[in-house]
Amino acid sequence: MSSFNDIIQSEKPVLVDFFAEWCGPCKMMAPILKEVKAKLGDAVTIIKVDVDRNPGAAQKYGIQGVPTLMVFQQGQVKWRQSGVVQARQIESVLKSALSG
Question: Which of 83, 79, 99, 94 has the alpha carbon at shortest distance from 41?
Fold first, then answer.
């Protein structure tokens, strides 16, 4: 299995959903991320990171609240947003990363 750092070095945009099992709004993100993945397919990678199981990653990126979504490309943070984000906003961020 690839490490988190290997995954975010990708040429294609990587959407990371920092979440926690106990977080109600985090559960609302699952169908939204499914919809985004269905529209954009293999052009993007979407991964979920449980902040309780991966406190190092949460600390490294200063995750204060969940859900927090981040888009990485070639290891660089391209976008970041906390809270529930609608599918069309995520798609537009990822599309601009793809065309950038």
Answer: 94
| Cβ neighbour number for residue 37 with a 10 Å cutoff | 16
**Total-model pTM:** 0.95
Domain total in the chain: 1
Host domain of residue 26:
4-99
- Which residues, 6+ apart, have CB-to-CB distance to 89 below 8 Å? 81
Please identify which of the residues 15, 20, 26, 32 carries the catalytic annotation: 26
26: annotated active-site residue: yes
Q: How far apart are CA 5 and CA 34, in angstroms?
A: 23
Report the CATH number that the domain containing residue 92 is assigned in CATH. Answer: 3.40.30.10
* Closest C-alpha among 4, 96, 80, 97 to residue 47: 4
* 47: annotated active-site residue: no
Q: How confident is the model over 19-49, as pLDDT tens digits?
A: 999 999 999 999 999 999 999 999 999 999 9
